[in-house]
Every structure is written in C-alpha cells, then in structure tokens.
Amino acid sequence: MATVEEAVRFDTSDVDRHVGKPVGGGQLKDPVTTTDVRRWAQGMQYPNPLHYDEEYAAESVFGRIVAPQSFAVCCDVGHGAGPAIVGNIPGTHMIFGGDEWWFGTARIYAGDHLRMRRRFVDYKVTDTKFAGPTMFSRGETIYVNQRGDFVAKQWSTAVRYLAEEARKRGFFEQTAPRPQWTDQKLAAIEDQRTAWIRSRAGSNSPPWEAVEIGEKLPTRPIGPHSLSTFATEWRSYIFTVWGSTVQEGPDHLSEAGWLPEMDRDLEGAKEDPSRGDGLYRGPSRGHTDEEHAKVIGMPRAYGYGASMGAWVLDYVAQWAGDRGSIRHSNVQYRFPAFEGDATFLDAEVTDTRDDRTLGAKVVTLEVVMTTQDGAVMAKGPAEVELPA
C-alpha cells in the first residue's frame, strides 16, 4: 500500500514488506499449571468453579480442572497482538481493535505446553476522530498443544496511531468523563453481578432445541475498573512473569516505533527484568499510570483489549455451561475500559442452526459491551455449540 497523506503524514512503507509473512515472537518455556488457570479466572473476574475448584471439576464432564477457552490468549506472549504489530512507524502507539477466534475441540489442561505459529495478515489505513490517519492491522496466531492438536486460531486487530496527534485531539478526554458513583449505584452493580454468577448453567447446559431466537442472556457487570483490577489482569498473563518466555526469531516488537517514554529497556532488563516488564516500563505502562496514559492520548489509566475479548468469551461460556463450547467469535473493540468506568455485557440469540460442516448444533449470540453511560465498547457475534 502507498504512503497515506492526510493532514498528518503516516508512513506505512516499512510495513508493506511484511504482509502475509511469518512473524517470530515469544514462546512459553513451561507447560501450563493449575495455578496458571486459577490465576487467569481470578484476573478475568470469572468465578466459575470448573476453572479453580478441583472437587467441582472432578464431578464435571471434564473430570478435572480445565482452562476456560479464553485462556488460550494467556498462553501467547503478547496476547495475540504481536503478529499484528510489524514494521517501523515512528511515534506510534497501539491499542486493540478486535479479535476473531476459531476454536477446535481440544481444551487446555494443566500439563499442556502450547506453541504458537504467527504471521502478519494485512492492514488498512483509515481516518479516525481519535487520531486522524490510523492503521488497522491484523495478525494471525495459531495455538497448538504438545500433541499437535489444534486448540485455536486468533486474528487480532492492532490499532496503530500517532500518539502526538491523539494527544492534540483529546477525543477520549471529551467522550469519557470520569463517572461519579453513589453507594446505591455500586450496590446495584453488586446485586447484578451476584445474579449473573448464579445464572451459571454449569452441568445443565441449555439443550439446543430449547433455545429460542430473541432469547436474552443475563447482564454481566464488571467494575468499576481500578488500577488494582488492571494490575491484577496484567499479572494473570503468564508471559508477564519474569523468565517465563523465550524469544524465537527477531524481536520485531522492539522496532515498532514506540515513543521513548513507552519503550522497554531490553539491555537493562538483563540485570533487572522490571525494565523490560512492559507494565513498569514499556508499552503497557499507560494501563496503570495516568501520566503515561496521557502521553499516548488517553485521559487516564485504561484496560486491556485482550481482557475485553476474554470477558466476552467467558460471558458466553457461562451461559453455554460445561457441555457447551465456543466455536467462533468475531468481536470488534470500539471504546476502552477506563479507570472508574464499569462495563456491562449483554447478548441475544440471533440464530440457531444444525451445522453440517461442523457436525454440531450451533447457536449464534450477538454480544454487546457498554459503559455505564451506554457507549458501545465492543460488539460482535459468538457461535456456540450446544448439546442436542
């Protein structure tokens, strides 16, 4: 694609040479542990005992603790974004723009050692209110276990933009004011969360024949988000643990064109791993640090797009129950989860079909994620296999 000229110059020439090509990246050194799965469920605020209670899990169809399907992204270094961030564009930063998932029938258990294959898919440049000329680039990550079983394929969208232009425009400063919470409103959220938790299908997965188009799922509230919840999310990702990963191939992420304030000190990390940690120093520090959030055009600390994707998958899985299985989802992210905001997930059944290709009974849910003010944070379909 040619260089795009807007009011601001956005040069993609170094990206073009990577289109369609394999990409290197990190791999986890060790197999998954039960503690990894438990920590993930905790970090994603997903209280499903199938993923942390060995007694409950032993009585389930799995016979032991199994990872939620959202856990696949926890096994990747960079939660799927890596192959979407290739080529040098100086002065840029990135946020997640969406994830499309295809799941196989293999699930993840303690002892599994996943490996990832990655490639850069494609990109386009669009003018946005947020930052002017903005790149939407897609990368593919294929997750395979130690037996060679296909676990999942992810197409992640990275939104790469010029941080200086985003700061000038102050789009989210104008559209995402910090909310004021009363005790009454917080109590209502807590009641809604309790009702959602108790709606878990568990071993009583809804039979496909009983699901009706137009059926609505219970609302799932998350938040209000805080620096504590964002830090807990980050630390639930295995790759954030010091020494847990090994780099394969060139480290293309270090050449992306990050601002100096948001870059990692990889040389210094050889002595002190926190310098390459990502959160203390690096591209993710704006998630828990308001000063650095403002450097990249955000009004305050904000959440992770990868976590938003996990919230969607866990929400759908809660409804589908232990015998249900997500086969495909395609959710676009439109608005970050800012500190102080709350997130609400809703869904409606839009289709039911006997899928001859999959050999499965499938239900399609249209999932919508909103803020307390009704701003749409994410939206898209999820296709779930249910027992007949």
User: Based on helices, strands and strand pairing, what is the structural class?
Assistant: alpha+beta
Shape verdict: globular
Order of helices and strands: EEHEHHEEEEHHHEHEHHEEEE
Largest sheet: 9 strands, antiparallel
Q: How large is the share of residues in beta strands?
A: 25-35%
Unreliable spans are 1-6
Radius of gyration from the alpha-carbon trace, in angstroms: 20 Å
Mean pLDDT: 93
Helix run count: 9
Using DSSP, what is the number of strands? 13
- How far apart lie the N and C ends? 48 Å
Give the helix proportion (percent range).
10-25%
Order of strands, main sheet, comes to: 5-6-7-4-10-13-12-11-8
Structural overview:
It contains 9 helices and 13 strands. The strands form 3 sheets. It has a 9-stranded antiparallel beta sheet. Strands 1-2 form a two-stranded antiparallel ribbon. The chain has a two-stranded antiparallel sheet with strand order 3-9. With 388 residues, it is an alpha+beta fold.
Which terms summarize this structure?
single chain; alpha+beta; disordered N terminus
Topology of helices and strands:
Elements: E1 4-5, E2 9-10, H1 13-16, E3 25-28, H2 34-43, H3 54-58, E4 92-103, E5 115-128, E6 132-144, E7 150-162, H4 163-169, H5 171-175, H6 183-198, E8 220-222, H7 227-236, E9 245-248, H8 290-295, H9 305-320, E10 325-333, E11 343-355, E12 360-371, E13 376-386
Antiparallel strand pairs: 1-2, 3-9, 4-7, 4-10, 5-6, 6-7, 8-11, 10-13, 11-12, 12-13
Helix pairs in contact: 2-7
